[in-house]
Amino acid sequence: MAEERQGLTVPEERIMTKIVILREEKVILDVHLAELYGVETRALKQAVRRNLERFPEDFMFQLSDNEVDTVVSQNVIPHRKYLGGATPFAFTETGVAMLSSVLKSPAAIEMNIAIMRTFVALRKLSVNYQEVMRIVQEMRGQYDAQFEEVFRLLEHLVNPPQPHRQMIGFKATGE
The KilA-N DNA-binding domain covers which part of the protein (predicted)? Predict the structure, then answer.
């Protein structure tokens, strides 16, 4: 699934590499969104600041110093200087959707659609993963009893029970 922007192909994989998890949310940093939209980070932030009422905390948040260090250490960004001295904004899926009402250029709208499709694809993958894990757990419970029986039979083959043997030899009287 690739989207076209001003003659450039933007593959879903490229967008996925920009999505990180912070505060237990999948987010994209402003610097990466600006890159994808083909605008300066400064211009994107300026448009957002003019419309802050559209971006509550669950749509967008500013990273703490610790979060910036985490993002740098995970190689999401090469170093702090990459941010241009400003603390970045992180946009959740709903925040990215809201950006389409702030950035109105055709290129921004097309890129926004591609990003939203990528978020949806990630959500579907997550649901599929959870379903697979549920099935594996069910199978584990189902097959644990069967494997237990197999191991019991193998143990019986390796160490068969000793049959009762009649003792031979002299018996003392009174026994």
Answer: 18-102
Show me where the domains of the chain are located.
2-127
Tell me how far CA of residue 63 lies from CA of 20, 46, 68, 84, 162, in angstroms: 12, 17, 6, 14, 71
CA dist., res. 68 & res. 77, Å (int): 9
**b/e map 92-116, b = 16+ CB within 10 Å:** bbbbbbbbeeebeeebbebbbebbb
Q: How far apart are CA 175 and CA 173, in angstroms?
A: 6
Structure-block tokens of residue 131: 């379903």
- Reported as a single tens digit per residue, the pLDDT across 108-156 is 777 778 888 888 887 787 777 777 777 777 777 777 777 788 878 878 7
Which residue is listed with tokens 């644990």?
A: 144
pTM beyond 0.90, yes or no: no
Instruction: Indicate the residue type of 53.
Output: E
Helix, strand or coil for residue 167?
Answer: coil
Nearest of 124, 65, 62, 118 to residue 93 by alpha carbon: 118
